[in-house]
Automatic annotation (TrEMBL):
Any GO molecular function: peptidyl-tRNA hydrolase activity
CDD domains: PTH
Chain's gene name: Ptrh1
Record key words, sorted: Hydrolase, RNA-binding, tRNA-binding
Organism domain of life: Eukaryota
Pfam families to which the protein is assigned, alphabetical: Pept_tRNA_hydro
Official protein name in the record: PTH hydrolase
SUPFAM superfamilies hit by this protein: Peptidyl-tRNA hydrolase-like
Length: 134
């Protein structure tokens, strides 16, 4: 599960994916808490939920380069695009509204496009979190 965002700009509307992951991490039993993994340039936490082993990932890159971290983590943890869930902001959704999208285009989202390009696939499931337009 990947929280897309701008790592250095936490707390902004475009980093809502990372905020969602922080909240998810607080609700799950983490194996060790968040750890910096230099191999994929990301904060990583391992967790178990309902018998599933989860890798939570917060890339330490700007949004348009998040895919590099996601692709590295996918290789490290032997994950395919279909195993990856992206959590990201969506300007076209009203504030607080959420939707799940299975595959397809990036719809203009630079972080999603970065992941599609780095993984050579658009088959990731996306949780789109509405931030509305200013």
């Amino acid at each position: 599960v990947v929280g897309l965002g701008n790592y250095g700009l936490r707390g902004t509307r475009h980093s809502v994916g990372m905020e969602v992951l922080d909240r998810l991490a607080r609700q799950l039993v983490l194996v060790k808490g968040w750890q910096v993994d230099k191999r994929c340039c990301a904060d990583v936490a391992l967790a178990t939920a309902h018998g599933l082993e989860l890798v939570l990932l917060k890339p330490r890159r700007f949004m348009n380069l998040n895919g590099l971290s996601v692709a590295s983590a996918a290789e490290i943890y032997s994950l395919g695009p279909e195993d990856i869930y992206l959590v990201h902001d969506d300007l076209d959704k009203a504030l607080g509204k959420v939707a799940i999208k299975l595959g397809g285009s990036a719809r203009g989202h630079n972080g999603v496009q970065s992941c599609i390009s780095a993984l050579h696939s658009n088959e990731m499931t996306r949780l789109r979190v509405g931030i509305g337009r200013p």
